[in-house]
Amino acid sequence: MPGILVVCYSRTGTTRAVAVALAKCLHADFEEIIEPVDRSGVLGYVRSIVDALLSRKGLIKPMRYDPAQYDVVVIGTPVWAGTMSTPVRSWLCRNRRELRRVAFFCTEHRRGEATAFKDLEKLAGKTPVARCALPGNLRAQEEQRIIGLFATRIERHLDRTREYEWMA
Ligand SMILES: Cc1cc2nc3c(=O)[nH]c(=O)nc-3n(C[C@H](O)[C@H](O)[C@H](O)COP(=O)(O)O)c2cc1C
Predict the structure, then answer these.
(1) What CATH number does the domain located at 4-167 have?
(2) N or C end of the chain: smaller count of CB under 10 Å?
(3) What is the 3-state secondary structure (H, E, C) of 83-109?
(4) What are the sequence ranges of the domains in the chain?
(5) pTM above 0.85, yes or no
């Protein structure tokens, strides 16, 4: 088992930056979910709001890593209209049956993480081993600290599980 995979979608780079920092902390593989859809500008923003409100799914490009090969898959999304982003919904619908354990994180302006986590959990059909919300007003140092704590929680869970599996 290679361990941990971090996947994320990012429209404007915030979630990607967190995902890259987290993958570095965890020595994890990292992959970004890419859509063949332009979500830039005001039109892209409106389109994204509507897609999220209607819980739409869309096309996503084929991915390099197979999530079934990992102990834990960490899924990162920006909060869109109080839920997960459309590309993350598309990825989860496609891969949820392959996931052993999951952890979730989201970036947001300032609210919506509770409903976003609830929707992620429901769609994944799994309770996450850890979750983390990062609002947009955090200072860089505070953000690094929270990412570090989140990584520690995921690692501790993995250590406990491996110990248990070894003893069983
Ligand atoms: C379509 C859309 C809907 C959003 N809805 C919310 C929301 O409900 N609550 C919130 O706090 N932020 C909301 N935001 C802000 C983003 O969650 C936030 O800026 C996020 O960090 C952007 O991540 P990204 O740069 O990885 O795309 C929304 C942004 C977009 C584009």
Answers:
(1) 3.40.50.360
(2) C
(3) ECCHHHHHHHHHHHHHCCEEEEEEEEC
(4) 4-167
(5) yes
